[in-house]
């Protein structure tokens, strides 16, 4: 039996990036110890540490991690997420155009809500 715990986030707030990084490393060590004690494995290839802030940022951290389908960036301005969203919407428009000759208006409407609007509304509350 294999169990997965995906999209787990550990958040800490510190007054400086150096303190935040030190706390992140401490948290990662504590988590690693707990996982080892419970015979679980941390997939370090899928583990990222990122820093959000208005001032300094450490160089070695992941700049644009994905979390629950949203692409985050250090300043939370959503620029990278919007770039990816534009690509998804462009593909959706292409698919809808291809379907126009095959489906009636109800079918197109259903396809629109299924393959276009879902991309726009996902994560809207954030």
Q: What does this entry show, briefly?
A:
The chain is mainly alpha-helical. It has three helices and two strands; from the N terminus they run H-E-E-H-H.
Question: How is the secondary structure organized here?
Answer:
Blueprint: H1 17-37, E1 66-67, E2 70-71, H2 79-100, H3 105-121
Antiparallel strand pairs: 1-2
Helix pairs in contact: 2-3
Which key terms come to mind for this protein?
126 residues, mainly alpha, 3 helices, 2 strands, Reverse transcriptase domain-containing protein
Strand composition percent: under 5%
- End-to-end distance, in Å? 35 Å
Q: What gross morphology would you assign? A: elongated
Q: Which stretches are low in confidence, meaning pLDDT under 50 for 5 or more residues running? A: none
Mind describing the biggest β-sheet?
2 strands, antiparallel
Radius of gyration: 20 Å
Strands across the major sheet, in which order?
Answer: 1-2
Helicity range:
40-55%
Per DSSP E runs of 2 or more residues, the count of β-strands stands at 2
Element order: H for helix, E for strand? HEEHH
| Global mean pLDDT | 84
By secondary-structure content and strand pairing, the structural class works out as mainly alpha
How many helix segments? 3
Can you describe what's shown?
48% of the residues lie in helices and 3% in strands. β1 (66-67) and β2 form a beta hairpin. Strands 1-2 form a two-stranded antiparallel ribbon. It has three helices and two strands. The model has no long low-confidence stretch (mean pLDDT 84). It has a domain at 1-55. The radius of gyration is 20 Å and the shape is elongated. α2 runs antiparallel to α3 (105-121). With 126 residues, it is mainly α. Residues 1-72 form the Reverse transcriptase domain. InterPro entries: RT_dom. This is Reverse transcriptase domain-containing protein.
């Amino acid at each position: 039996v294999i169990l997965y715990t995906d999209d787990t986030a550990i958040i800490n707030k510190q007054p400086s990036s150096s303190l935040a990084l030190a706390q992140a490393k401490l948290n990662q060590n504590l988590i690693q110890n707990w996982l080892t004690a419970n015979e679980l494995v941390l997939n370090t290839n899928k583990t990222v540490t990122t820093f959000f802030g208005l001032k300094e940022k450490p160089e070695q951290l992941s700049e644009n991690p994905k979390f629950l389908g949203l692409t985050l960036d250090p300043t939370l301005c959503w620029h990278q997420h919007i770039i990816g969203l534009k690509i998804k919407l462009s593909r959706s428009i292409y698919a809808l155009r291809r379907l126009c000759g095959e489906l009636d208006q109800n079918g197109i409407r259903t396809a629109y809500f299924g393959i276009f609007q879902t991309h726009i509304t996902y994560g809207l509350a954030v």
